[in-house]
Specification:
8 helices; single chain; about 270 residues; alpha/beta
């Protein structure tokens, strides 16, 4: 893209550098893969909160393989079947041939194996969580030791420790990748822990929330009224009382921690 349209390329980078957090969602096919991988690199190098879901985890893994392990041709088998450095491989759950028969689907168990991890705090210190899945390709288990040696820790796995479910980057406040789809279980007043954690991190409020709650996120309600112009300054300009009989006010767009466009704040601090 840089060679094809330098102006568009530069504009895209300007927009990326102005955000307070990057959410890289799931998907299929190779469209935009290189840009997604570069967005993970940007967040990794600048400390910007990054939340990768399914494919978003895999593109972050591709970047780490290329940038930190020196595997220049690293890629997912989905996009380059001839690469000698397959950091993501086809791991079918079962065979059927039709209607997603080779996909890993439904609610599956994830073991959070590190009590000091961010994921453990987001899930309120639960060592076992169930999240829904929808994918065919996963992190290559043969490369896990190399990834972890470079600082990408797989703090959540399946019961057999063969499928990598949650990844975190050592030394980064919020660099989280999940193989599952937490959005499938998220609700307006019962938000998915990784999503709420990401919004809080992007607004610069996650650590305060964890400190208040004894190292737990406590994503499930009831929520106290949202504050906090006095505590969060420009990070939060909305107030929400979910116990009120009146419809909640529409939250205003809140500036992010860096003063950029940030995120819309509706349930930030308890």
């Amino acid at each position: 893209m840089k060679m094809k349209d330098p102006f568009l390329y530069d504009e895209a980078w300007k927009k990326l550098k102005d955000v307070d957090g990057v959410l890289c969602p799931g998907g299929f096919g190779d469209r935009g893969i290189e840009g997604k991988s570069l967005s993970a690199r940007h967040c990794r190098e600048t400390g910007t909160p990054y939340f990768g879901i399914c494919l978003g985890l895999q593109t972050a893994v591709i970047d780490v393989a290329r940038s930190m392990l020196g595997l220049e041709r690293a890629n997912s088998e989905e996009f380059d079947k001839e690469t000698p450095d397959k950091c993501c491989v086809f791991m079918p759950d079962h065979s059927g041939g039709q209607l997603g028969g080779t996909m890993r689907l439904g609610a599956r168990c994830t073991i959070i194996n590190d009590p000091n991890s961010l994921a453990y705090k987001l899930y309120d210190c639960q060592p076992v969580v169930y999240e829904r899945h929808r994918h065919r390709y996963e992190v290559n288990p043969d490369l896990v030791q190399q990834f972890e040696g470079a600082g990408l820790k797989f703090v959540g796995t399946d019961e057999r420790k063969q499928r990598m479910e949650i990844a975190e980057l050592e030394g980064h406040d919020f660099f989280l990748g999940v193989q599952f789809h937490p959005e499938f279980k998220s609700r307006p007043f019962r938000p998915s822990p990784p999503f709420l954690g990401f919004v809080l991190a992007s607004a610069g409020l996650l650590q305060k929330r964890l400190e208040r709650n004894g190292g737990k996120l406590l994503a499930e309600g009831p929520f106290d009224p949202l504050v906090l112009p006095s505590e969060a300054g420009e990070n939060c300009s909305a107030r929400l009382n979910v116990n009120s009989s009146q419809p909640p006010e529409q939250p205003a767009k809140a500036k992010g921690a860096s003063g950029g466009p940030g995120v819309v704040s509706s349930v930030l601090a308890k």
